[in-house]
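We emphasize that the prediction below concerns an isolated chain of 105 residues; any contacts that depend on oligomerization or on bound cofactors are therefore not represented. The input was used exactly as deposited, without trimming of termini.
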Amino acid sequence: MKFNIWHAIILVISVYAIITTFEKRKIESKYNAEIEKGITIINDSIDKLNLQIKDLSIKLKTKTKNIQKGSKDINDKLKQDEKDIDNSIVNDDELKNFISKHENR
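Result of the prediction step, given as a token string:
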């Protein structure tokens, strides 16, 4: 079999195709590694934000419960004061006199 110019051209083209394919796969591999790294960083950031949101939710829930308890305590105290006033032995005229006496100061 005789080696001619066509064999040389086919050989060069084949070698070029093989080298180009390997280079392309190498570049794709580096690109994919960078993408994976970016995805990992983003996922870590999302996880961190989710933990912060969870922590804030717990704090807000606790604060809300404390405020509701304080509101209930105030309402209970107000009801008790109203009962004390209703059961008081001081009549309305005495109360008016007391208030007007102290308003003029």
